[in-house]
Amino acid sequence: MVTGENLRIDGDRLWDSLMEMARIGPGIAGGNNRQTLTDEDAEARALFKTWCDEAGLSMGVDQMGTMFMTRPGTDPDALPVYVGSHLDTQPTGGKYDGVLGVLGALEAVRSMNDLGIKTKHPIVVTNWANEEGARFAPAMLASAVFAGVLTQDHAYSRTDLDGKTYGDELKRIGWKGDEEVGTRKMHAYYELHIEQGPILEAEGKDIGVVTHCQGLWWLEFTLTGREAHTGSTPMDMRVNAGLAMARILEMVQEVAMAAQPGAVGGVGQMQFSPNSRNVLPGKVVFTVDIRSPDQAKLDGMRAEIESRAAAICADIGVGCAIDPVGHFDPVTFAPELVGNVRKAAEELGYSHMNLISGAGHDACWAAQVAPATMVMCPCVNGISHNEAEEISREWARAGAEVLFRAVLETAEIVE
């Protein structure tokens, strides 16, 4: 009987896989630039497929480009347990965000093979396409289509900054599958991830037992002013879209601070046009990101930001259009699966605490169609979406071992 101390993964093999994957799409400061549907993404997918082939997994790819790698169960009628995350990164991303979840899931399967473990339910290691949303907004695009939240046509029409569409780029890199999106049925879904925040490290905990994920709105603002010479246009005759943007940024900070505790807001992307030193911008596009685990607070923040932004722009004479390009409501993860994660941490002797995920994950959309939850491990100084992102071998192993045990609890070991 495989129990107790035998239920461990190979931490060195997991770490070596993480480091080998990080060689694909290197950044400029030690991290990765492996954005979705780039040549680097295609190379990462090919390497992942090779490893899955070696582990005896069979591949399915859906029409959004998500990879599903299946280890059979003993019961042909049992629904699969899905485990995974994503291999795409931010333009200046780290080596672990998303990648740990995919390769931790693969390591769980490799360890099942090593230990001769059979499960009643199949295990499906999953690499979701375009989780980051850095190149094609919104984030978690493929899992949103899978859950029926967005249409495939809408997803295919998303464009990057060069005007290239998701659908065309998916075909170009050769990873558009034949499988209809969302037809698969899940028994459960687990996702391992780095915390992307400082709480676990600050509290000295090995494992985050994720009970909820906060909701978010991405609001894309397009402000329209009038291009004019910065030196010869009188101050009282300007229609300055940049000034309106600056006041909106300050207002977003005020709204988020007034909603404390349990709320955040900020701006991470902006574009000036024509973006010249001596020309007032005729157009400014930027995205406001607001999040909260409290639905009423989240919706209230959005309403206040939109109302106050309209007033700011009207005062300056700037046009203001707001497009909600990303959204999901706060998520409560399945209590039974959360309990399995907590039990696994306790059995392995890892310190743990409950967490609410501050970031969005594919698990948030998977939770719309099946019981789902997440396992988190610390990251150094809480830094993520940054090439300085770092974790330790021990944290990676702890997270993967908890994932391994929790998945086996749900997939049911066959003696």
How does this structure look, described?
It is globular, with a radius of gyration of 22 Å. By secondary structure, it is of the alpha+beta class. The strands form 4 sheets. Strands 1, 2, 3, 5, 6, 7, 14, 15 and 16 form a 9-stranded mixed β-sheet that branches. The protein has 12 helices and 17 strands. It has 2 domains: 11-213 and 331-414, Aminopeptidase, CATH 3.40.630; 215-328, Alpha-Beta Plaits. Strand 1 and strand 2 (67-71) form a beta hairpin. Zn(2+) 2 binds at residues 97, 132, 385. Its cofactor is Zn(2+).
Here the CATH topology of the largest domain equals Aminopeptidase
Please describe the biggest sheet, giving its number of strands, its sense, and whether it closes into a barrel.
9 strands, mixed
Helix content: 25-40%
Low-confidence stretches: none
- CATH top level label of the largest domain: Alpha Beta
Total DSSP E strands: 17
- Form type: globular
Give the CATH H-level superfamily of the largest domain.
Answer: Zn peptidases
**Number of domains as seen in the coordinates:** 2
Q: Quick check: average pLDDT?
A: 96
Instruction: Name the structural class.
Output: alpha+beta
Number of helices: 12
Report the sheet-strand fraction.
Answer: 15-25%
Question: Can you write the helix and strand succession as a string?
Answer: HHEEEHEEHHHEHEEEHEEEHEEHEHEHE
Radius of gyration: 22 Å
Give the terminus-to-terminus CA distance. Answer: 7 Å
Spell out the blueprint of helices and strands.
Elements: H1 11-21, H2 39-54, E1 58-61, E2 67-71, E3 81-85, H3 99-115, E4 118-119, E5 123-127, H4 141-146, H5 152-156, H6 166-172, E6 188-194, H7 199-203, E7 207-213, E8 215-224, E9 228-229, H8 241-258, E10 264-273, E11 279-280, E12 283-292, H9 295-316, E13 319-328, E14 331-332, H10 335-348, E15 352-357, H11 362-366, E16 372-377, H12 393-411, E17 413-414
Parallel strand pairs: 3-5, 3-6, 6-16, 7-15
Antiparallel strand pairs: 1-2, 2-5, 4-17, 7-14, 7-16, 8-12, 8-13, 9-11, 10-12
Helix pairs in contact: 1-3, 1-12, 3-12, 8-9, 10-12
